[in-house]
Automatic annotation (TrEMBL):
SUPFAM superfamilies: Bet v1-like
Superkingdom classification of source: Archaea
Lineage of origin: Archaea, Methanobacteriati, Methanobacteriota, Stenosarchaea group, Methanomicrobia
Pfam families: Polyketide_cyc2
Official protein name in the record: Polyketide cyclase / dehydrase and lipid transport
InterPro entries reported in the protein's UniProt record: Polyketide_cyclase/dehydratase, START-like_dom_sf
Species name: Methanolobus tindarius DSM 2278
């Protein structure tokens, strides 16, 4: 099994980070990596997701949500083409830190026949996409937090 994990500390309370991270409708306004998510944040819900790793045209996927713990974690599992070829379980975890800070941990575990080959070609671009998303989430939340908003939602 192959895994890519990144994390970042955000100077904003966990509830504000969660609010932005789960506001799928507005992903395109701040998120350079996951530029679209359609669907409900509910266990078993099928999503429409557009991933855009840097230097690629992007890819559309239809993962299924496998875990939702408000203010803590959500996960989905998806596959490319057919299950068993290139499967990924994507997780977003939040940890509450002292002084109103939050750690975001974004990981994906890959498996399947083509996982080693695809990760050889796209692994670093995928990691870069995670890091760009993390930084954008941090910037948006911290900008909102400094302005005294009660929720960390992107500007229209």
């Amino acid at each position: 099994m192959h895994k890519i994990c990144t994390d970042i500390v955000i100077e904003a309370p966990i509830n504000e980070v969660w609010d932005l991270l789960t506001d799928f409708h507005n992903f395109e306004t701040w998120n350079p990596f996951i530029t679209k998510i359609k669907g409900k944040l509910e266990l078993g819900s099928k999503l429409e997701v557009h991933l855009h790793p840097p230097g690629t045209k992007g890819i559309d996927m239809s993962p299924v949500i496998t875990k939702v713990e408000p203010f803590n974690e959500f996960r989905w599992i998806g596959n490319l083409w057919v299950k068993g070829i290139f499967d990924g379980e994507h997780a977003f975890r939040l940890e509450e830190l002292e002084n109103g800070r939050t750690r975001l941990i974004q990981c994906e575990r890959f498996k399947g026949i083509l996982a080693p080959l695809i990760l050889y070609v796209l692994g670093e671009k995928t990691r870069a996409g995670f890091e760009k998303m993390n930084s954008s989430l941090k910037n948006e939340c911290e900008k909102r937090n400094k302005k005294g908003f009660t929720q960390c939602v992107p500007s229209a």
